[in-house]
Design goal:
Blueprint lengths: L1 E4 L5 H13 L3 E6 L4 E6 L7 H7 L4 E5 L19 E3 L2 E3 L6 E4 L6 H14 L3 E3 L17 H14 L3 E5 L13 E4 L7 H8 L5 E4 L6 H13 L5 E5 L15 H10 L4 E3 L1 H5 L2 H13 L5 E4 L17 H18 L4
Parallel strand pairs: 7-8, 7-14, 8-9, 9-10, 10-11, 11-12, 12-13
Antiparallel strand pairs: 1-3, 1-4, 2-3, 5-6
Bound molecules: phosphoenolpyruvate and manganese (II) ion (MN).
The site of phosphoenolpyruvate (PEP) has 10 residues, from loops.
């Protein structure tokens, strides 16, 4: 059950309302969005008629609705209009379609600055870069780690682009202070301790779908973060593992559409990891925009042939610029802010 509260209700009144439910044996998740505040009741609410509560508590409640799905706080019913997340002035969601781009991994000051400056000129709104890399082989480049995060911060200061980077475990949280969006990678989508830990942060979390996870499992992982107190979650479809071996993964465009229908959270997609092949990135990016995603994440490199990670799927800086010109044309037709 979700109750949408009237605007400008004092925290004391909200706490009081929640305490009343807790005394009846329910637990409650408070979701404070920029436009509305919602209280989700967790427990067996089948005997409660939401309209009774709206009548009895018209001083504080605007509307109430049963939520039958297991995901409550991230359910579309909590915010039918969809949530827009603000990242250092860059908006994501409901008509805002920012492009996140940058190298798979930060490799050097020269590399990250060259990429950051170029993608900014092309129109990217956020810079991505891996500092801690989850690699299949322990013998592959593991990322520059803390030094990589410092180089990302430098690129942020130089270009003004907010930065996105992947966290691998909760012991790294302090290092991520200057990171604007904390990414949870596909391999960590069900690392529940990590989900709870980033749920205690205030900053947005980019949650990527696991290689072999269902749409509902992705929503339940987002629910972990929201239930821990952080409603600022961005969902990311990045391809799932199928029997197909000619692409690295299979981009699940239906998931993008369904996630938008089921959840109020912004949904983006990552064609680079989905395809694993550079020539597929641009057509997939156009498709991602066409099905109604709220943004896109694309790997770029100043010298893809010599990239330490994921070079085969990385666009060079000219290719990225060409892609941005195409996306901008389409965004204009669709009335989206890119
Ligand atoms: C990445 O974005 O660099 C990454 C490792 O992605 P994923 O977790 O989707 O594989
Ligand atoms: Mn990568």
């Amino acid at each position: 059950m979700v109750f949408i509260l009237k605007p400008k209700i004092s925290q004391d009144k909200i706490d009081d309302f929640i305490r009343g439910w807790e005394e009846k044996g329910f637990s409650a998740v408070l979701s404070i969005g920029t436009e509305r505040t919602a209280v989700c009741l967790i427990g067996n609410t089948t005997q409660i008629d939401p309209d009774d509560i709206v009548r009895a508590r018209s001083d504080i409640v605007v509307s109430g609705k049963q939520i039958t799905e297991r995901y409550k706080a991230v359910n579309r019913a909590v915010n039918e209009n969809g949530t827009v997340i603000d990242v250092g002035g860059v908006k994501i969601g409901e008509g805002y379609f920012p492009v996140i781009s940058g190298p798979c991994s930060v490799e050097s000051e020269e590399q990250v600055l060259a990429v950051a400056r170029s993608i900014k000129t092309s129109g990217a709104k956020l810079l991505r870069g891996g500092a801690f890399k989850p690699r299949t082989s322990p013998y592959d480049f593991q990322g520059m780690q803390a030094e990589g995060l410092e180089l990302l911060s430098l690129a942020k200061r130089e270009t003004g682009l907010p930065i996105v980077s992947e966290i691998m475990n909760q012991s790294q949280i302090e290092l991520f202070e200057d990171v604007d969006i904390v990414q949870i990678g596909a391999r960590n989508m069900q690392n529940f301790d990590l989900l709870k830990a980033v749920g205690n942060l205030k900053k947005p979390v980019l949650l990527k779908r696991g290689l072999a996870n269902t749409i509902e499992e992705l929503l339940m992982s987002a629910e972990y973060i929201a239930a821990s107190g952080n409603p600022n979650v961005i969902l990311c479809e990045r391809g799932i593992r199928t029997f197909e071996s000619m692409t690295r993964n299979t981009l699940d465009l239906s998931a993008v559409i369904l996630l938008k229908q089921k959840s109020h959270l912004p949904v983006i997609a990552d064609p680079s990891h989905a395809a694993g092949i550079r020539s597929l990135v641009e057509p997939l990016a156009k498709a991602i925009m066409a099905v109604g995603a709220d943004g896109i994440m694309i790997e770029t490199h100043n010298d893809p042939a010599n990239a330490l990670c994921d070079g085969a799927q990385s666009l060079d800086l000219e290719q990225f610029d060409a892609l941005m010109r195409e996306l901008k044309k389409r965004a204009e037709l669709e009335g989206k802010v890119i």
